2Fe-2S iron-sulfur cluster binding domain-containing protein (Rhodococcus zopfii), 106 residues
Amino acid sequence: MPKITYQVPDGTVHIVDVPVGQSIMDGSVRNNLPGIVAECGGSCSCATCHVHVDPEFVELFEAATDEERDLLEYAEDVDEHSRLSCQLIVNSACEGVRVTVPDSNS
Ligand code: FES
């Protein structure tokens, strides 16, 4: 099971096993990590699951859909590595992926 590293808004770092097929959002919510609110439960309609993916791992995930890009416009602190974590589905190549959760999701 890939280990995903989450740096959360208080600066602490959490390493979590996330099963293939689940999202980066699922891995955070199931382990009660702070920062990813996921108000819409993963249906790509709230933008409270915004994360910054470390640049070296961006290519491991499918590109953002137009829907996701539109929603990211409503998030704060967006940069070129911003994604909605409910749309980042973990695959077997994701071992060691690291994301940073911004302070602005709530
Ligand atoms: S959980 Fe709502 S957009 Fe990801």
Notes: The beta strands are 3-7, 13-17, 50-53, 82-84, 98-100. The two ends are 29 Å apart (CA to CA).
